[in-house]
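User: Could you check the structure of this?
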Amino acid sequence: MLDDFLLRAALAGLGVGVAAAPLGCFVVWRRMSYFGEATSHAAVLGVAIALGFSLPLMPAILVTALAMARTVSVLSGRGHAMDTLLGVAAHTALAAGLVAVALLPSVRLDPMGYLFGDILAVTRADLAVIWGGALAVLALMTWRWQALLTATLNPDLAHASGLDPRREDMVLTLALAIVVAVAIKVVGVLLIGAMLVIPAAAARPLVRTPEAMALGAALAGGAAALSGLGAAFALDTPAGPTIVCAAAVIFALTVLLGRLRTRTAAGD
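Assistant: Sure, the predicted structure tokens are below.
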């Protein structure tokens, strides 16, 4: 029994790491960390809608996250500063979702599992959803990788190459919504942004190409999931936050390694 639920938890953590890795690189390159936070916070509102109308959880979260991303994108071009919009949207969605869940008369739900994750309670069905979403994100990123890179580096060059940067933005938004939907069980809505940004940032000092950064982010995310899960079990701490702390430790180590490598190269 012990080995079984730990194995499921480890596989779930690896699935989220794999799903978040390539997308996290684009979040870092485009400086979209607050956009990811707003989208993930909307997941709580999606949970409330699913419970209130007896809908499947993942489609409700996907639709809500996409609606949040679309709303912010539309309003950003109408005289509102992007950081202000993201702050308003993120906190409003989170608060509205928590209030809506509390008002549901027939539902008694502990919101902590959705806020911080409950990786130890992952079932076989959850694993299928997590890995299905992870493979979908990987397929989407592989298919649009070069187009996404071009649109990220230079939108004008993307236009000249026959690409539509707005379409690539929608691809990223869809992938982000999928990651939010599959990661909510593992790290919770408050920590999804960290798993997008920290592994990608950890890989950045040690690589030279975008593809290597995506691979390094996947390795860092997987290592954070496994080491954080082991530390949580040994120390009896919450698994989701401990996984994020493990990712932060990996980030600090790669930053130090990057600086040592730079100094060594300069000394030569």
